[in-house]
Specification:
Elements lengths: L2 E7 L7 H14 L4 E7 L11 H4 L3 E2 L5 E2 L2 H8 L9 E3 H14 L9 H13 L8 E6 L9 H14 L3 E8 L2 E2 L4 E2 L2 H12 L6 E6 L5 H11 L6 E5 L7 H7 L2 H8 L10 H11 L3 E9 L9 H12 L3 E9 L8 H5 L4 E4 L8 H14 L3 E4 L1 H13 L7 E2 L9 E5 H4 L10 E9 L4 H6 L3 E8 L1 E3 L4 H6 L3 E6 L4 E6 L6 E4 L14 H20 L1
Parallel strand pairs: 1-6, 1-7, 2-5, 2-6, 7-10, 10-11, 12-13, 12-14, 14-15, 15-23, 16-17
Antiparallel strand pairs: 3-4, 8-9, 17-20, 18-19, 18-21, 21-22, 22-23
Bound molecules: glutamine.
Glutamine binds next to strand 19.
């Protein structure tokens, strides 16, 4: 049987449970184990797809088209696991399945209850990702003590009862430093573990989030009050670079403690490549300034993967990437020359809704004319197509039907509308689609191959009726989906680097395997920076 590690969180949210779980995954992989990670969220939405980015942060998309929690992005970036629909469950998804069974009569007249029916459904979900993995790491969202998390905690308690030595409980907690008394405080941790023990869960390992190393005295105190052996009280100290966390945990021997507890051989730990990657990222040879023109500029959590992919792209050239978040609406009032003058590269990311669109388009005109490297992703690619139509192909008032129905030139429009499919919700193009690249394109140069596949999350598409018109006006359509004949990548040739893609490449970038488009974009931006410095 596979082993399960359940990661819970105490005291408060935002302590970095997802990154802690992902770091455990990295460590166990470095010891030669096959692992995967799974996330359970206690809220009632069936998935985060319909939630506002202000509520939820980024919606991470998997190859199989699931709209999931952003922690799955950390799982894929830290480990070699490939996540799917089965890797993210919400209370809503669990209840949806139970209610469907109830209506079908599957419960044969029984009263359907939290225990045992909901907990059984949760336990069944744990086993959906086992496959050939030695260890499954399951992150339970929310904070211990919340009403909503209770069925999940009850389910993991039952797992221990049923599978004893194959189950391990890791609890992430906070040990705050109180400035006025100059002390680290263990009480929040004591209380959080007390809550867990009251529902029958004794944590095996504590990860104590703190801003400084915990000395033996503090660890001994925590151990005594929580009934966790001293060696298993681990310091989880704040770091600048999240990819350092597996290294930090390894110094505390977290991997050997876990493997000993699970009765698994230790093997030898090989973190050499990971260490090199962290070391390199800490000693960049130079830097590059990227302007990110978006709507949620104030909410960086909604662009975690993008942020990461840009840094990975920088690391590929040993560059530090300084990302400046520019509110697109500001560009409607100020000239782009003023706002964007500092930028070595301009990126317009994905997004939804009308606000800020004209500002984004203005930034694209600026990038095109000033020959600043430009990267448009999803909505950014759609805006670049509109910009080209309006200003080069002279299609006045060209637009997307997402923003106005009253345009004579629907450059971007709802594909399903044209196909006559009724709009009944669930209408997005989601997940992995293949794309054929044109020889000699920037895309082909970046990827080094002619067929790629990337992840999508959008409703609107480049209108095939304008393909010829815009191509004749000089737009280079360099990537298309062969199955549905849809435009996936546009480029401008008389420009150092101008590329827009309908998909989201950021979801597939990893620190040890930077995404080719981000690598190419950062490379071009750095060249532009050097050129500009020379001309000064
Ligand atoms: N709003 C656009 C669409 O739905 C773009 C979506 C995105 O950028 N992810 O097509």
């Amino acid at each position: 049987m596979s082993k399960f590690i359940f990661v819970t969180g105490g005291v408060m949210s935002a302590l970095g449970k997802g990154i802690a779980a992902a770091s455990i995954g990295r460590l166990l992989e470095s010891r030669g184990y096959k692992i995967t990670l799974q996330k359970f969220d206690p809220y009632l939405n069936v998935d985060p797809g319909t939630m506002s980015p202000f509520q939820h942060g980024e919606v991470y998309v998997t190859d199989d088209g699931a709209e999931t929690d952003l922690d799955l992005g950390h799982y894929e970036r830290f480990t070699s696991t490939k996540t799917t629909k089965a890797h993210n469950w919400t209370a809503g998804k669990i209840y949806e399945s139970i209610l469907r069974k109830e209506r079908r009569g599957d419960y044969l007249g029984k009263t359907v209850q939290i225990i045992p029916h909901v907990t059984q459904e949760i336990k069944d979900a744990f086993f959906t990702v086992v496959n050939k993995n030695d260890i499954v790491i399951v992150e339970i969202g929310g904070t211990v003590g919340d009403i909503e998390s209770l069925p999940f905690l009850e389910a993991i308690r039952q797992m221990k009862l049923e599978f004893g030595p194959d189950i391990l409980f890791v609890h992430l907690t906070l040990v705050p430093f109180i400035k006025t008394s100059g002390e680290l405080k263990t009480k929040p941790t004591q209380h959080s573990v007390k809550e867990l023990r009251a529902i029958g869960i004794q944590p095996d390992i504590l990860l104590c989030r703190t801003d400084r190393a915990l000395n033996q005295d503090i660890k001994a105190k925590i151990s005594l009050f929580t009934n966790v052996p001293l060696e298993a009280v681990i310091t989880a100290q704040d770091v600048d670079n999240i990819y350092e966390i597996p290294l930090l945990f390894s110094q505390e021997n977290l991997d050997s403690i876990i493997l000993n507890r699970l009765g698994l051989p230790l093997g030898t730990r090989d973190l050499t490549k990971w260490k090199d990657m962290v070391q390199k990222s800490k000693s960049p040879k130079d830097e590059v300034d990227i302007a990110l023109v978006g709507k949620y500029a104030g909410l960086q959590d909604s662009y975690i993967s993008l942020n990461q992919a840009l840094c990975h792209g920088g690391e590929a050239h040993q560059l530090k990437v300084n990302i400046s978040w520019i509110e697109a609406e500001d560009l409607e009032h100020f000239s782009p020359e003023k706002v964007l003058d500092f930028a070595d590269g301009i990126l317009v990311p994905g997004g939804f809704g009308t606000r800020g669109i004209e500002g984004k388009i203005k930034s694209i005109t600026y990038a095109r004319m000033q020959k600043v490297p430009f990267f448009g992703i999803c909505l950014g690619m759609q805006c670049a197509s509109i910009e080209y139509a309006r200003n080069i192909a002279n299609l006045d008032k060209a637009n997307s039907t997402e923003f106005t129905k009253k345009t004579p030139h629907k450059i971007i429009f709802k594909w399903r509308e044209l196909k006559g499919v009724k709009d009944l919700g669930g209408t997005m193009r989601l997940g992995q689609y293949s794309c054929l690249l044109k020889k000699g394109s920037l895309a082909e140069k970046a990827y080094g191959q002619l067929e790629i596949s990337e992840r999508h999350r959008h409703r609107f598409e480049f209108n095939p009726a304008y393909e010829k018109i815009l191509s004749d006006a000089g737009l280079f359509i360099s990537g298309k989906n062969p199955d549905h004949d849809l435009v996936e990548i546009i480029e401008i040739e008389d420009h150092p680097w101008f590329l827009g893609c309908q998909f989201h490449p950021e979801f597939k970038s990893k620190p040890m395997d930077p995404h080719p488009l981000f690598k190419a974009f950062i490379g071009a931006s750095y060249d532009y920076r050097n050129q500009r410095d020379k001309n000064k």
